[in-house]
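chain below, 166 aa
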Amino acid sequence: MCFFFFFNDTATTEIYTLSLHDALPISRTTALENVMLPMVYAGKSNRYDKAMQALDVVGLANRARHMSNQLSGGQQQRVAIARSLVNNPDIILADEPTGALDTQSGDEVMAIFKHLNQDKKTVILITHEPYIAAHAQRIIHIKDGHIVTDKINDERITKELKDVKS
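prediction:
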């Protein structure tokens, strides 16, 4: 098991959200209804606009009225991510968000997390996949409940610096 982190400079611990690999959209509802659900529980208003904005962030605003069973696995995962974002958390805890996805869909999900981190969200992601962990700024390996390694991902940071300079 590998925890990895995208940190921002102003992280707070006021709000948490959870995006699980099996937290797919609720069947018999639209993508939009799925994303609005956390706001119903939180008693928030303006649900439609906020849900559409969250769907737009994950590239699914055009699929808002589609039923869950009309979405691909990658799209369902992105609906789950939108649902976790809709209440604007500072910290996103994601357990195996790419575990059931093909490589292309997994890369799309990781691009969403990277974009969220650039927007000052802290992302804590749990994965068993080394190529997914390679996206992180910091990687913590845990085995049998104990931290085995805790390191800064220098290769990723060096690549980002090169990208900024070019």
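The chain has a mean pLDDT of 80. The first strand starts at residue 2 and ends at 6.
thats it, cya
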